[in-house]
Amino acid sequence: MTVIKTKNLTKSFSNDLLKQDVLKQISIEINEGDFAGIVGPSGSGKTTLLYCLSSLEKITSGTIIFNNKDITKYTDKEIANLRKTELGFIFQFYNLIPNLTVYENVLLAKILANKQEDDIVDMLETVGMSEYKDYYPNQLSGGMQQRVAIARALINQPKIIFADEPTGNLDQKSGSEIMTLLKKLNQEKKVTIVLVTHNEEYLTYCSKVYRLLDGRVV
Ligand SMILES: Nc1ncnc2c1ncn2[C@@H]1O[C@H](COP(=O)(O)OP(=O)(O)OP(=O)(O)O)[C@@H](O)[C@H]1O
Ligand SMILES: [Mg+2]
After folding, report:
1. Which mutation among 48, 59, 165, 200 tests ligand 1's pocket best, with the greatest number of atoms within 8 A of CB?
2. Which of 20, 133, 175, 198 fits as disulfide partner to 103, beta carbons 3.0 to 4.6 Å?
3. 125 CA to centre of ligand 1 in angstroms
C-alpha cells in the first residue's frame, strides 16, 4: 500500500531579485514497509524534499498524496494535526528539549498528540534507553540522544518516519548503531522510513533509493 506519493512536485524559493527552482517535477512513491533513501550532493534539495513531503514547507506546484488524501489541499490546522499524529521526525541535531528528562521528552510528544501516557518505558526499551529515562539530554552521548529522538518519533505510531541525516553528527560507530536500530524497527515493527543521507554506505540498508541532482530525481 502506498503511504505517500508525489506527482510533479516543484518547489521554488523567490525574493525580489531572483527565483530559484529547488525541486523540479519530482514524482516518487513510498510504500508501507519501505526504507527509502534520498541521496545527492549538498544543495541538491534533499532537505527541502523531506520538508515538502512532511508539509513543513508549502510546495509550489504538483500534488502530495498521503494515505490516499491530497494533503496539499489541507488547512494549516489539518496539517498540524497530521504532523502530530501520523508523521515522525528525526533530525541531525536530535532537537531534544534540554530541561526535560529522556522520559519527559518522549512524553511531550504524546501529550501534544492528546494520547495516553502508557507505553513510554516500552518504547525506551525498544531503543535501548529505558535505563536512562531520568537522565537529561546533556548527560547523554550523541548516539544516546538520537535513540531518544527515535523513541519520540515513534511513540505515536506514525505512518511514516522522516529522518534527515540522523547520523550526520555521530562518529562512525554510533552512526552504524543508529542505522542498525532503524533497520530493526523497519524490519521488525514495519516502520516506514524515508532517510536522507550523505553516506553511500548506508544505502545498503535501504529498500529503494532516490538520487537527487540539482532538484531532479535522476
Ligand atoms: N528557506 C529557503 N529559502 C531560500 N532558499 C532555500 C531555502 N531552503 C533551501 N534553499 C535552497 O535550496 C537548495 C537546496 O537546499 P537543501 O537544504 O534542500 O539541500 P540539501 O540537499 O539538503 O543539502 P545538504 O546536503 O547540504 O543538507 C539550496 O540551494 C538552498 O540554498
Ligand atoms: Mg540537507
Report:
1. 48
2. 133
3. 36
pTM for the structure as a whole: 0.93
DSSP code, position 60: S
Q: Is 197 in the pocket of ligand 1 (CB under 6 A)?
A: no
- Please name the amino acid found at residue 11: K
Q: How far apart are CA 62 and CA 59, in angstroms?
A: 7
Tell whether domain 2-217 is in CATH 3.90.1570.10. Answer: no
Q: pLDDT tens digits, residue range 21-51?
A: 999 999 999 999 999 999 999 999 999 999 9
Q: For residue range 49-100, what is the model confidence (pLDDT) as tens digits? A: 999 999 999 999 999 999 999 999 999 999 999 998 899 999 999 999 999 9
167 C-alpha vs ligand 2 centroid, how far in Å?
A: 12
Grid-cell match 519501505, residue found: 34
Q: Is the CB of 13 under 6 A from ligand 1?
A: yes
pLDDT above 90 (res 198): no
35 Cβ partners below 8 Å, 6+ apart? 182, 183, 186, 192, 193, 195, 205, 206, 207, 208
Domain-wise residue ranges, the chain? 2-217
Look at residues 43, 54, 56, 45 and name the one whose alpha carbon lies nearest to residue 11.
45
